[in-house]
Amino acid sequence: MEVSKKHLNRQRRTLLKTGALVAGASALGYSALAGAQANTIKIGHLTPLTGFLGALGEYAVQGIKMAAEEINASGGLLGRQIELISEDSVNPQTASSKAQRMIEQNKVQVLMGEINSASALTISQVAARNKTLFMSIGARSDALRGKNCNRYTFHVDIPVTVMVNAAGEALVRQGLVKGKKIFALTSDYLFGHDLSKAAKAFFSRNGGTVIGDELVPTDLADFSPQLLKIRQARPDLVATNLGGNQVTNFVKQYAEFGLSFPVAGFNLNTADAWAAGEGNLGGIWPTVWHHELKTPGSSAFVEKFTKKYGRIPENHAWIEYVSLMMMAQAIRETKSVDTDKLIAYFESEAQFDVLKARKAYFRSWDHQLMQEAYPFTVKPKGQAKNKQDFLLFGDAVPAANEPLEKLAPPKSASECKM
Amino acid sequence: MEIVYLLEQVVNGLVLGGYYLLLALGLSLIFSVGGIVNLAHGAFYALGAYLSLEVIRFVGFGGSILITPLLVGLVGIVFERFLLRRFYAADPILSLLVTFGLAMVAEQALRMIWGSAPLPSGMPAEFKGNVMLGEFMLSRYRLFILGVVIVVMSGIWLLLHKTSFGRVVRAGVQKPDMVAVLGIRLQPYMTSIVVLGVATAALGGVLFGPIAIVHPAMGTEIMTVAFVVVVIGGLGSFWGVVAAAVLVGVVRGVTTHFLPAASEASMYILMVLVLMLRPRGLLGERIERFE
How is residue A397 annotated by DSSP? Predict the structure, then answer.
């Protein structure tokens, strides 16, 4: 009896102590929130941090955080600090509900982010319903800027069509398309089908024949049956329309089997390329940016990022960084965070410095950022200085004397109606 | 022409079966002997792949094949002693929850230690390339994997069928109460079986790291295949798992030949068919506690 009473008292005391602590902490937090609410510009940021795009999302968050810190350190925007509310979007449903919550409860001024095209779609629908600006940063599906476009969404990354054209041009120059037999592998989901459609159109326009297009389930990790089929088909070129880390898997197993047909692909992030490893990757691929780009802005960015995070920035880190910088420029120039004013500014095709040789701008009728892209391949054996140095990046496309819109789908071919 | 291509898929499927076997056998052993569904099995596979990348730096690839499974086996001892042991006599749901939770913790731990970016993992250059067996092309590396699997499987078979250790384990699978009556404590055998199970999973990780991607979520990717193979093969049967692994490999290959988009779904359809015709699996024993 004695023991249990003491025990009960002790429990009660612990409960009171903990309760007081929690109340105190939340009071502090609340006042910090209340204080912050008055003075900051809130930016809602969503990107996948788990799942097959998680590795890319990690780079993305690092990129945008670095940009936010830089802007805040130099005085913020319109005299106010930026408050970046960044969360894991997980999947399209979660992305949608988080976006909604960020608008209603957190009262964000704009939404930014995403890499997964399906999640970007749901967020853009939430944005349109709530008349909030959404800058879709890393999602590449053509449909997002085509039939699913809306007035409140802007697209930063190059879409599928541009990726196909960027790598495709290099392939044509190497004589791998005209009169050649092409065997394609396609990831069986929205993005893969997008790539396949654009790739087939490109090949037929340039005189190539697609002799096979194998659909590959997105959870497939072992490509040995497909590799056997490739050998059976004996193509002149193997084209991959694969998403996420399926490309890495395929490339590694292609090297494992030691097949000799040239490989090319229309989607590969530098993180996926590094994961494939030197000696496994070959062929021609497109990218929206790379860390060896020799412009002063780009080199400075790479140096800053490497110093801060201890690793080389991947294209998703770069794109999130320049996206926040573009948003900041828009806010400064319009001297407001009003959605309609920002939309008007972007639609005026204002020029932005995206750390490349040429400035970029958003096309007014589909809100797609017009910018350069780069084809890349692999350095000859033995030239790589370290595990990430084996990629050989080509010159920007379109060429300096050609319009930036050359690779992008023209208005006549687009289903976008705003 | 067509037949040769089909046969090539079959042969490749047989080779692939070896890999599935490595993953599934450990799971089946733990399931049969301890009655525990080890949803954390994939975590040991992933740990094997990650550790191998570190171990390779010291002892090379060959050394890693021997050492990494041993290291993971040690982790398995801790896992069994402090986690699994509490749940042998408990409601099966609890062991499901615990191992599921462990799998998630393990994935996050891998992410925290090694980062979420996939790590480059390669194989020694001598293994790259293909070998022609008549008309059939086979990957040199996969033949090597098949060789390792055959050696390991032979060792495990000998252990289970030709030693007194194995005799007790098999008796424990069929009639655990009788074993207890005979005065034999099953506990140390259980620990050894768990260690064996997770070590084979880790070996799978070491062998398949070079041709798959090494990333924190890789454990969950192989769990479904391992499960399907165990279920098709049936509990408590060594040869059942072997047959199921080979069958799944071949069916996948053949499906890819005719209907590539359905290749991943084919093993589930196979599982449904087998269970409808023979609910205990191909060669499953009747396990007392599950009836």
Answer: B
Which residues, in sequence order, are bridge partners of residue A112?
Answer: A45, A135
CA closest to B118 among chain A residues: A275
User: CATH number of the domain at A41-157+293-371, please?
Assistant: 3.40.50.2300
Question: Quick check: A277 and B252 CB within 8 A?
Answer: no
- Contact yes or no for A229 and B256 at CB 8 A: yes
Distance CA A151, CA A159 (A): 18
Give chain A positions within 8 Å (CB) of B122: 277, 279-280
- With CA atoms as reference, report the closest residue to A305 among A61, A77, A55, A136: A61
Partner residue facing B261 (CB), from A217, A231, A257: A217
Domain ranges of chain A: 41-157+293-371, 161-287+372-413
For residues B178 and B182, what is the distance between their CA atoms, to the nearest angstrom?
6
CA distance B121 to A154: 38
Q: Which CATH architecture has domain A161-287+372-413?
A: 3-Layer(aba) Sandwich (3.40)
- DSSP codes joined into one string, B69-132: HHHHHHHHHHHHHHTGGGGTTS-HHHHHHHHHHHHHHHHHHHHHHH-SSPBP----GGG-SEEE
Shortest distance between the Cα of B72 and any Cα of chain A, in A, equals 23
Residue A267 pLDDT: 86
Alpha-carbon gap, residue B58 to A382, rounded angstroms: 23
- Mapped onto helix, strand or coil, the DSSP state of residue A45 is strand
Cα end-to-end span (Å), chain B: 50
By Cβ distance, the residue of B211, B216, B253 closest to A252 is B211
Helix axes of B238-258 and B218-233: crossing angle, nearest 10 degrees: 110
CB atoms within 10 A of CB B54: 12
What is the side-by-side strand order in the sheet with A237-241? A209-216, A181-187, A237-241, A263-265
Q: Evaluate the CA torsion angle B278, B281, B285, B290 in order and state its sign.
A: negative
Q: List pLDDT tens digits, range A234-255.
A: 999 999 998 877 888 898 889 8
Residue with more model confidence, B162 or B120: B162
Q: Which is nearest to A352 in space by CA: A335, A327, A334, A332? A: A327
Is B220 in the A-facing interface, judged by CB distances under 8 Å? no
φ, ψ dihedrals at B12, nearest 5°: -60, -40
Beta bridge partners of A375: A286
A205-229 residue pLDDT tens: 999 999 999 998 877 888 988 998 9
Domain ranges (residues) in chain B: 16-219
Q: Would you call A203 helix, strand, or coil by DSSP?
A: helix
